[in-house]
Every structure is written in structure tokens, then in C-alpha cells.
Amino acid sequence: MHPPYQQPPSQPPRQGMSTGAKVTLFGCGGCATLLVVLFVAVGCLALVAPSSESRLDTAEQPAEVEESYRVGDAVAHGAWEFTVLNVEEGVSEVEEEWETHSPQGQYVLVELRAKNIGSEPEYFEGRDQVLMDTGGKMYRYDVSASSGFDWLEPVNPGNEVQGVLAFDVPAGFELSHLLVNGEGSFADGVRVDVD
Fold this sequence. Notes:
By secondary structure, the chain is α+β, with helices and mostly antiparallel strands. The protein has 2 helices and 11 strands.
């Protein structure tokens, strides 16, 4: 025997928003979303694009001019003040009291004075002084042919040393300038025109 057929209970009517309310709510939500996106976009553009004020400041600033030094000028760099006193090119040998030095090519002799302007004893480093040719090639000094500098003695503040750095360069060498350097091997140095 089967129980009599019963109709499933009907679901109560759904309660919710009317179509008009949905359009109004989603319309406002869409506007709000659009406003947020626009606000973010304008903020990003303000960060990326320089203001007219900063462009004006840049335009008014003069370009930085590199100082130019020549033989006889005092040049401060690091703890040292350098003065190139004289430059002699095309030297075929350097005579010392006990020995004569001959270059592979020719010597360029640079007479240099270096004064310690720092606050503690410093060693003068001849290897940091570099000769440059017109093609941009760099030349280091020949320690055995150089004279006047005591590489093992520190120079006290206010004292100076003077000597000659001998650079062994090839025949046909065209001298441009010297880079004097009082800040060590990783510094660029300061240009002194010697041509």
C-alpha cells in the first residue's frame, strides 16, 4: 500500500531587490569603481610626469663646468695638493748617480710637487699618477727611472715632496694631459693639461 501522493511544499517567494533597485545600486557601484580607477590613474601620472615647476628649475640651472688646470696650477685632490712644475718629452735616457736608465720607447719626465693637505701622515703614491695620450691611452710611471720621491716614508700634514716621474712611452707618442690623483687607485684623478 502506497501512501497517498503529497504535493511538495511550495517554496516561499524570494524576497530581494526590485529590478530598479538593482540598476540603481550597480549603477552607483560602477560609477564608484570608475572613479577609483581614474583617481589611481591620475595619481600615477602625477608621479611619472615631472611638474612644470621642476622642469623650470632644471632649465634655470647652468651646466656644470669642469675646472681646467695647467702646468704651474695647484690642484687639490684627496689629501694632496699637486703642482706640475715642468714636462719634458722625448728623453732618451735618465742618468742617476750609479745607473743609467733607457726606455723601451722614450721618456716623458714630469716634475711634480705634492703637498700633504690632510690631517694625518700620508704616503705619496706615484703609481696613482697617470699620463694620457691624445687617443685616450693611459701610461703609468717607471719607478726605477723616477727620482726624488721616497716611497717608503710618510709625508706629515703641511709637508711636501718634490721629484720627477718618468713615463716610458712609445715613439710617436702624442701627449694630452696628466691625471693627478690623491684619493687612491679607484679614483679618477684631476686633469692637468700639459701639451
